[in-house]
Amino acid sequence: FLAGFGSLMQDVLWCFSQVKGAIDAGVTESDIISTVEFNHTGELLATGDKGGRVVIFQREQESKNQPHRRGEYNVYSTFQSHEPEFDYLKSLEIEEKINKIRWLPQQNAAYFLLSTNDKTVKLWKVSERDKRPEGYNLKDEDGRLRDPSMITVLRVPVLRPMDLMVEATPRRVFANAHTYHINSISVNSDYETYMSADDLRINLWNFEITNQSFNIVDIKPANMEELTEVITAAEFHPHHCNTFVYSSSKGTIRLCDMRTAALCDRHAKFFEEPEDPSNRSFFSEIISSISDVKFSHSGRYIMTRDYLTVKVWDLNMENRPIETYQVHDYLRSKLCSLYENDCIFDKFECVWNGSDSVIMTGSYNNFFRMFDRNTKRDVTLEASRENSKPRAILKPRKVCVGGKRRKDEISVDSLDFSKKILHTAWHPSENIIAVAATNNLYIFQDKVN
Amino acid sequence: ILLDVSLTVSLTVFQEMEDKVLSPEKAEEAKLKARYPHLGQKPGGSDFLRKRLQKGQKYFDSGDYNMAKAKMKNKQLPTAAPDKTEVTGDHIPTPQDLPQRKPSLVASKLAG
């Protein structure tokens, strides 16, 4: 447990640790990383990509010989989670892209995770095998059946050590419950249930039952012409198994209590920041759409990400957020072109650090931002191969908004909007972060003194 | 009276300029409306959301395809335009027109 944990921003120096993925300039579409998630101990780090594949990295045990190589992450397992499908009945193409991965807390030697594409959630078991039985009577070591008449002696098979093999097997497939596209999954604190949310509905599942799920939220209007908002993200409260939140494309968050009714269409709390009507523009609703919502580890706060800001809300105050952080406000004067190139619809995620004192989110040009809630200081860092010397300290980056550009600043017009950091993850207890930059995964750690 | 009118006109112009100066967002909105005069008033409304809900919709109809095949046994089926990204409209789509969706047989480069 590091002394630097939870310390002030100015004391944390972020260093490059590792980068995974291809170096060449051309990006294969299927290699684009679509989700990143640490497990509950931080020992494992999972990524999902557009090609439907999952790669799990495991942290190495710390070595006394190389104390400054504090536990590197190396490949532990990789498997094809989802495959492309075509729904002929609806003439609908179903992408294999992994939208979200969520880990279950570890309850035995095996690891379990949920992975989902637009339509189907799967429960995967990842387990180790380091012994194999040898000395069967009826088959030889290659598995070929032996002629029973040739067997004269009986022996007891014994377990012998073998090279470690990590197997991933699909244990449950939760299909056919979503008409619209799944954007979120969230494991409940009861460890028995989880929810999956699409644009208009949220379903509650029991891990053991795949042919039924309860619909707990349904915002589909009777007449689709009246549709005004969709569900953009949803999450269970970290401790209260009856409570969950979901965010909308109109910038609102609803908190629901499953004890009050079977169908939670009526919220227990409604979080919305009042808007000055005179400021309203064509873009207002689009940029207010919430792309991610996350409970703090404490369960006292929720954080939301919209196109230009990150907001922290106190669960006890519905009428406005308690903190608002500008991620890249300079984009406000670029909204026209960002609408034309569709960037305005990019869905950025946001994460808390383990102590809920710092929040992080991505931006363009492979920049990502951290905000210290206590000191109110913020920093912009960059994930790039140029800063990828081992243990190299990341230099803060700055975007120049107008006027004279300093030597190491970058002007808004020079930003590369194809290099977007949508997905990031923060280790549950240490200052280790994983940042997905298109097809590369960067791991940064704070400087070890 | 002439003096009052000109004062009012100047004040209105000044207010418009102030609006533009105060809000970069409104300036961007004006730019967009200049380029796309027919853009709807409610961007967050049903058209925009329904497009989002229709993601992944292709237009292959096996009934149309089979009927067309039967009718045009001796004739050439109309082929798709060179741009095969959007298969809709008068052209009868064939399975060949749909982009091939093969699962990834290649391992992720992250694991390399």
UniProtKB/TrEMBL annotation, chain A:
One of its GO terms (cellular component) is protein phosphatase type 2A complex. InterPro entries: PP2A_PR55, PP2A_PR55_CS, WD40/YVTN_repeat-like_dom_sf, WD40_repeat_dom_sf, WD40_rpt. Signal peptide: none annotated. SUPFAM superfamilies: WD40 repeat-like. Keywords: Repeat, WD repeat. GO terms for molecular function: protein phosphatase regulator activity. PROSITE patterns: PR55_1, PR55_2. It comes from the Eukaryota. Belongs to the phosphatase 2A regulatory subunit B family. This is Serine/threonine-protein phosphatase 2A 55 kDa regulatory subunit B. It comes from Nesospiza acunhae. The lineage of its organism: Eukaryota, Metazoa, Chordata, Craniata, Vertebrata.
From TrEMBL, chain B:
GO terms for molecular function: protein phosphatase inhibitor activity. It comes from the Eukaryota. Residues 73-112 are annotated as: Disordered. Keywords: Cell cycle, Cell division, Cytoplasm, Mitosis, Phosphoprotein, Protein phosphatase inhibitor. GO terms for cellular component: cytoplasm. It is found in: Cytoplasm. The keyword Cell division applies. The keyword Kinase does not apply. GO terms for biological process: cell division. Protein phosphatase inhibitor that specifically inhibits protein phosphatase 2A (PP2A) during mitosis. Belongs to the endosulfine family. This is ARP19 protein.
